[in-house]
DNA sequence: ATTAATTTAAAACACTCGTTTAAATTAAAC
DNA sequence: GTTTAATTTAAACGAGTGTTTTAAATTAAT
């Protein structure tokens, strides 16, 4: 059989789908390689270990999304008035949806991977993200904090993680929820519609005054 | 050694702690039985399989929490004025905290189990809960809808699932988030503090006016 | 006290897992 | 075209998994 120089890509493509659907530890290397139609050992040859494959899958998205999100938020800074919280969150929508042009279902897969990473791995993925993309996260947190100056930093920390949970869980079950919504209320939303629904919800929660 | 009729309880007690901390699939039966100081085979003798053990662990909490939550919400109905959304959500706090008297760290363990169950199992636990505790869920949804009559049913459907995502994700990673919060802001929150933090967030999101 | 039903115990079973090895193949370099 | 390096392949390794089996011990009933 002819050699394929795209073995790495085939592995990454198969792995990200399975990881997003089933989680990291529930996805075996044998399932990945059979779906990718490559040899089992090629994972360890190209990536070294399963853990490093997981990081590579995430990095392929983060390397695109994080800079795009950063510049989108910095663009808001050039406006004469302070951007509202909803404007800041909305600025992330385009970078998020652009992932769909990177790969099919890219937006959904990315958000699901993010959620899995936060819950499954015992901190090593969180460490990976904060050390590799810390400055991008900083600009986001600073922008959000500036738009809601009445929220103390510690409170904002919690609310931003509430927000992460909202978006991640919603995306993980978006397909199932869409089916129910279509059957029960006769409305069908695509990913973008769901994202635009969730933004007001998150913006209201993040900026609600702290109880004394 | 003398026979112990509390072998089932010893298994359940050890299992729920480990399941909450590490997740279901990351917790082996050997780890559970060694921590419970019982024989490995006794799990399959008393519960049949690991999957049934997981359900038994969850049912032990749900059987207590669900009726208590239902009656707490129905009690609000007796008041002369319509309960606010925050009042409805707050009514769940006491049934939740009462689980701490059932077992040590009961509240934390229950919520983490719920989160793990929703994320790890692909819908199996969702089915288990809705079929076994559906009427309790109904009273909750009806009470919330009545408290926010300006939200159309279809929009409320989405927002309640946003809310589910918020609480589930937060509880699944509560320990990790608490560690970060302690390191970064020097504040350490118990589970009640986190619950009281998340309620205003969710209440604001659910009741925010729908964009025209 | 004897029998019967539970409960515990130790070991093995039949997998699956990530990883490694060593040979075969392909691509690149000279 | 030969040599060298990079890549792919098949097979096995060792450790870990849930589950089952078989026998012993304990408890309950007769």
From TrEMBL, chains A, B:
Alphabetized InterPro entries for the sequence: DNA-bd_HTH_TetR-type_CS (IPR023772), Homeodomain-like_sf (IPR009057), HTH-type_TetR-like_transc_reg (IPR050109), HTH_TetR (IPR001647), PsrA_TetR_C (IPR041586), Tet_transcr_reg_TetR-rel_C_sf (IPR036271)
Domain HTH tetR-type, first and last residues per copy: 5-65
Superkingdom as given in the UniProt entry: Bacteria
PROSITE patterns documented for this protein: HTH_TETR_1, HTH_TETR_2
Keywords tagged on the record: DNA-binding
Positions in coiled-coil regions: none
Ranges annotated as DNA-binding: 28-47
MF term (GO), any: DNA-binding transcription factor activity
Pfam family, one: TetR_C_30
Official protein name in the record: TetR family transcriptional regulator
Species the sequence originates in: Shewanella decolorationis
């Amino acid at each position: 059989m002819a050699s394929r120089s795209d073995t790495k890509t085939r592995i990454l493509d198969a792995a990200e789908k399975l990881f997003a659907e089933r989680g990291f530890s529930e996805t075996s290397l044998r399932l990945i390689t059979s779906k990718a139609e490559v040899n089992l050992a090629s994972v360890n040859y190209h990536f070294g270990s399963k853990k490093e494959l997981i990081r590579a899958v995430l990095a392929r998205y983060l390397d695109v999304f994080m800079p795009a999100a950063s510049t989108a938020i910095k663009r808001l800074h050039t406006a004469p008035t302070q951007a509202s919280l909803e404007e800041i969150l909305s600025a992330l929508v385009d970078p998020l949806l652009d992932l769909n042009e990177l790969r099919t279902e890219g937006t959904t897969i990315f958000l699901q991977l993010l959620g899995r990473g936060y819950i499954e791995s015992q901190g090593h993925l969180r460490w990976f993200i904060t050390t590799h993309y810390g400055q991008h996260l900083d600009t986001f947190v600073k922008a959000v904090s500036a738009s809601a100056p009445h929220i103390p930093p510690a409170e904002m920390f919690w609310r931003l993680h509430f927000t992460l949970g909202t978006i991640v869980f919603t995306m993980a079950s978006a397909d199932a929820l869409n089916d129910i919504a279509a059957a029960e209320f006769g409305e069908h939303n695509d990913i973008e519609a769901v994202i635009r629904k969730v933004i007001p919800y998150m913006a209201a929660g993040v900026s609600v005054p702290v109880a004394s």
